[in-house]
Write a structure and sequence with these properties.
The complex is a heterodimer of chains A (269) and B (291). By secondary structure, chain A is an alpha/beta fold. Chain A has helices spanning 7-10, 57-64, 89-92, 110-120, 128-138, 154-166, 184-198, 210-216, 234-240, 250-259, and strands spanning 19-27, 33-42, 45-50, 72-77, 80-82, 95-98, 172-176, 202-207, 219-224, 227-232. Chain B has 291 residues and is an all-alpha fold. Chain B has two domains: 2-79, no CATH class; 94-290, no CATH class. The radius of gyration of chain B is 31 Å and the shape is elongated. The chains are: A alpha/beta (269), B mainly alpha (291). The A-B interface holds A 1-6, 62, 65-69, 84-90, 92-93, 95, 97, 99, 101-105, 107-109, 111-112, 115-117, 119-122, 124, 126-128, 146, 164 and B 1-3, 40, 43-44, 84-85, 87, 89-90, 92, 95-96, 99-101, 160-174, 176, 280-283, 285-287. Chain B: This is Zinc-finger domain-containing protein.
Chain lengths: 269, 291
């Protein structure tokens, strides 16, 4: 049975944007700023973060997941300022995160792993079994829930990763390259899931597949060399490109129009 | 869940009249807001659900028969679904203390203890690393650094595949660090105690190795917040080898560090380590501590 509507569910939000960054800089290694002066405001919906390899997408997602601290600038998640040495426990309970390299314990079954993650995310003990079952069903793994992780295919492992990210019903969901390793049918199903989640959650999906963005995202964030290049709807991105730009689809032409301008010739790849 | 607890304390339930009207169905004068409030209450309150089911059987036999029909139609299909696998479900309780990757490391730590114990016992007879008066036992020599290995294993990026996920959860940070460290110590310290008791070196008290052991563990964690726990463990083991093990083996007698005179120093190191860990507790919830 679905839980009754609680006071927390209908309380007004005390913030305008789920994610708000101003002048955000995040350092990687000693010197390099992988995110270099980013201004970004993201609300409810599915936001696709697009950009070439090495643009700083993963670093940005890690900073949003609060596992990297900003070097400069401010970052506010759900109205709470992130930074300093705080642990951000209350904030992290409302974040779901799927890292690019999703590591898991091979000997665990799907259910055990998602349960373990739910425990780590401080889901109330009595709610864990129900929350785990819902998450596993949502990614279509209910029939494989009691199989060990090592027996799963790459696409299924990815789906377990998505299940653990949504097990705590997050308000901010961060997915780093979630479609890698999914076959076309699974990608379609995944896009549907994204649209479902985006109705009441701020979903940030980093990807390098332009077609994922076209199909599932309400908003595109184009990102290069640590800076914001473009933010708008997929249609606006498509409109930026003309027939003279490289690409097979309007979105790809828009992408190359914005990224491959003459002052950005950092190599042909 | 909150509502359940409230119901348990008997705070407020729907009146019998309202439940009866609800069971009879529409056209009984229940306002829409009353229906809404009642349904919200029913979702959370077991007592009122029981009352409702009783009310349905007495006041609305038509509904009761309908439910009965649906139930009898469903029953054969429910019986046909595959039963849940009987395999013992690994409970969260164990993995909340130990990550699965720690188990082989702890096994190694315990076997090193046993090996040191064996060598000590054999050495008594052959004069190798002799643990007689003036000599030094291998257990005593290795005890302080063994838990450090376990602590490193529980936070290592190379050994824990889910390190990035673990770093991002609310439970990450000091809480989880202490939990895993405590479980390492809970396994290693008894093994060392037994070994220490079995070798029975005269004039060596448990404090002589327990205090350095705790001091090294806290130093590893304190340093780990800055350079990563794995690197910190390597550094601490190297320092231990250079300052204590080498001079001891060379001279075949306990260095100052292991004698009773060294105890206040170890106490100071322990206090410092614990202080730094508490002051920098936020450092364990970012990726840096996992290097």
């Amino acid at each position: 049975m679905m839980p009754a509507v609680s006071a927390a569910d209908i309380a007004p939000t005390p913030y305008a944007w789920e994610i708000r960054a101003t002048g955000l800089k995040v350092r990687v290694g000693r010197k390099r700023m992988a995110v270099d002066g980013l201004d970004l405001s993201l609300g409810t919906g599915v936001h696709g973060v697009l950009g070439p390899n090495g643009a700083g997408k993963t670093t940005l997602i890690r900073a949003l997941a609060t596992v990297l601290r900003p070097a400069e600038g401010t970052l506010e998640l759900l109205g709470e300022s992130v930074g300093g040495m705080g642990e951000h426990r209350a904030l992290r309970r409302r974040i779901g995160y799927l890292p690019q390299e999703f590591g898991y314990y091979k000997r665990f079954t799907v259910r055990e792993f998602v349960e373990y993650m739910a425990w780590l995310k401080e889901v109330p003990k009595a709610d864990i079994p129900g929350a785990v079952q819902r998450a596993v069903e949502r990614v279509g793994l209910a029939d494989r829930a009691d199989e060990r992780m090592k027996a799963l295919s790459g696409g299924m492992v990815r789906r377990v990763g998505i299940a653990q990210a949504i097990v705590n019903d997050p308000a901010v969901l961060l997915l780093d390259e979630p479609t890698a390793g999914l076959d076309p049918a699974q990608r379609l199903r995944f896009r549907e899931l994204l649209q479902e989640l985006g109705a009441d959650t701020c979903v940030v999906v980093s990807t390098h597949l332009v077609e994922d963005v076209a199909a599932a995202c309400t908003d595109v964030v184009l990102f290069a060399e640590g800076r914001l290049v473009f933010q708008g709807t997929p249609d606006e991105l498509a409109a930026a490109g003309g027939p003279e730009h490289v690409g097979d689809s309007p979105l790809e032409r828009g992408y190359s129009a914005l990224l491959l301008t003459p002052d950005r010739t950092g190599g042909s790849w | 869940m909150k509502a359940d607890r409230k119901a348990g304390r008997g705070v407020e339930h729907a009146s019998v009249r309202v439940i009866d009207d609800y069971a009879r169905g529409s056209g009984t004068g229940l306002a829409a807001d009353q229906v809404w409030a009642l349904e919200a209450h029913l979702e959370a309150c077991r007592v009122c659900r029981d009352r409702l089911s009783a009310a349905v059987t007495t006041h609305a036999p038509a509904v009761a028969t309908l439910v009965g029909t649906v139930w009898s139609g469903l029953e054969p299909r429910l019986a046909a679904t595959a039963p849940v696998s009987r395999r013992r479900h690994r409970s969260v309780r164990l993995s909340s203390w130990l990550t699965p990757t720690m188990v082989p490391w702890l096994a190694m730590v315990v076997s090193v203890t046993l090996l040191a114990l064996l060598l000590d016992l054999v050495g008594n007879g052959f004069g190798f690393g002799s643990s007689g008066s003036g000599g030094v036992s291998l257990v005593l020599l290795f005890a302080p650094v063994l838990p450090v290995l376990g602590v490193a294993a529980s936070w290592s990026q190379g050994l824990d595949p889910a390190y990035e996920l673990t770093a991002s959860v609310p439970r990450a940070g000091l809480h989880l660090v202490l939990r895993r460290t405590a479980s390492v110590l809970a396994l290693v310290v008894p093994a060392l105690l037994v070994a220490g008791w079995a070798t029975g070196v005269p004039g060596v008290t448990a404090a002589q190795w327990l205090l350095p052991c705790l001091a090294f563990t806290s130093t590893t964690l304190a340093l780990g917040g800055v350079v990563g726990v794995t690197r910190a463990a390597v550094a601490v083991v190297a320092v231990w080898a250079a300052v204590v093990v080498t001079p001891t083996l060379a001279a075949n007698r306990a260095t100052f560090a292991l004698q009773t005179g060294g105890l206040p120093v170890w106490g100071l190191v322990l206090t410092l380590g614990v202080g730094v860990v508490i002051a920098r507790r936020g450092a364990y919830s970012v990726l840096g501590a996992h290097r």
